[in-house]
Amino acid sequence: MSENAEDKEVKAAGAATLSKDAAPGETLLKVTGLQKHFPIKKGLFQRQVGAVRAVDGLDFEVRSGETLGVVGESGCGKSTMGRLITRLLEPTAGQIEFEGKDITHLGVGGMRPMRRDVQMIFQDPYSSLNPRHTIGTIVGAPFRLQGVEPEGGIKKEVQRLLSVVGLNPEHYNRYPHEFSGGQRQRIGIARALALKPKLVVADEPVSALDVSIQAQVVNLMDDLQEELGLTYVIIAHDLSVVRHVSDRIAVMYLGKIVELADRESLYKAPMHPYTKALMSAVPIPDPRRKNAKSERILLKGDVPSPISPPSGCRFHTRCWKATEICRTTEPALLELKPGQRVACHHPENFEDQAPQDTVLLTAAKEAAELVADEVLAESAETSAAVAAELAEEDTSEESTSEESTSEEATSEASTSETSAPEAAASDESTEETGSQESTDK
Length: 441
Ligand SMILES: Nc1ncnc2c1ncn2[C@@H]1O[C@H](COP(=O)(O)OP(=O)(O)OP(=O)(O)O)[C@@H](O)[C@H]1O
Ligand code: SF4
Ligand SMILES: [Mg+2]
Hints:
Blueprint: H1 2-20, E1 27-42, E2 47-63, E3 67-71, H2 78-85, E4 93-98, E5 101-102, H3 108-117, E6 118-121, H4 135-146, H5 154-164, H6 181-193, E7 199-203, H7 211-228, E8 231-236, H8 239-245, E9 248-253, E10 256-262, H9 263-268, H10 273-280, H11 324-328, E11 334-337, E12 340-342, H12 362-368, H13 373-393, H14 397-414, H15 420-433
Parallel strand pairs: 3-8, 3-9, 6-7, 7-8
Antiparallel strand pairs: 1-2, 1-4, 4-5, 9-10, 10-12, 11-12
Helix pairs in contact: 4-5, 4-6, 5-6, 6-7, 13-14
The structure holds adenosine-5'-triphosphate, iron/sulfur cluster and magnesium ion (MG).
């Protein structure tokens, strides 16, 4: 009887703890309009002459228990974003809420309790571990910093953590240089997990490791997530790492999120041209497609400078679909399909958001040379299919002319021999009928 009562008490205490935490699927972290501009200063008086707009207006949320993958080319602001949400950096503007609490400008003292809940794993397992400290000291540091005394003492808990991440607990007194890259990253993971965090932000956790070791570390993180109910934000520069482990994926370009969708939707039907380009860079081991022609999209040039990002859509200088509106008007990140947000005037696999604007910019014509024929054909095919669908819905006079264009496009697309320049040229001819001229110089 008394045991039962005790049982109930324990359960009630457990429930109380649980109700404090976000239930699986609930928003754990919410970011609104997040910005980080690093000032550029010059001269004797260190006058500010400009700013690196590393993160330039992010809106997203992280749900409890999920893995959110964040991908994008080097310099697009992924690490800055990671450091902002773990509050290692002070944001220039915007808001960060953790479990409904505004933590945007919390000071050191205010942040202390939150430090336990949010941890970061860094990219470089060589420089992120102090070479003069034993791994026992390194993994035990969070307890000392937070003044936490684990049951059974720090040493025992650290040894338990080492075995959790697959390391020998007897190696407690060894130094980082005695471990391989993969083992060092396990040490970093053990350290991040010491205080049982709710959110772990992992900045390129495996990109410094040998490919053969990468899968092991990713699998370890995956197992730990299940065992410990962790929520992850995993940052990577390409999709090869995050594609297997992420529930949702945010694609970043020059300080902005250009597409945010669940993994399935993103793989089945990416809507942002940049996402499509990133995906084409990752070979898909699909036996059904082994005879398919290569569908690689090579993006021309480097990412423009975040000091003065291009006007309108920041991707317009490299996008094969860019038109005048892309140069002048920034597309908002909109939920075009359930669970799929995208910032593009002419999305893939969806109805055109600016169908009246058909004149390709010069940059787009040049970019098209680097886009595989299949991609251009597929693009034309989807826009034709969407246009046909719309025409079916709309029986008015106007839709008849739309339909004839879409038929043309379909016939173009179905010709398997259509080459890239031809496909681009066919676009141009459609434009000319609109008697518009490109104003891009
Ligand atoms: N402390 C800083 N001061 C000035 N500029 C910075 C600072 N940190 C980052 N930047 C700049 O901000 C931009 C975004 O950098 P960030 O490191 O966030 O990109 P990233 O996406 O993580 O790139 P990578 O894939 O190379 O790690 C870059 O142009 C970078 O040079
Ligand atoms: S089509 Fe326009 S809006 Fe869409 S990604 Fe290309 S340049 Fe940006
Ligand atoms: Mg980085």
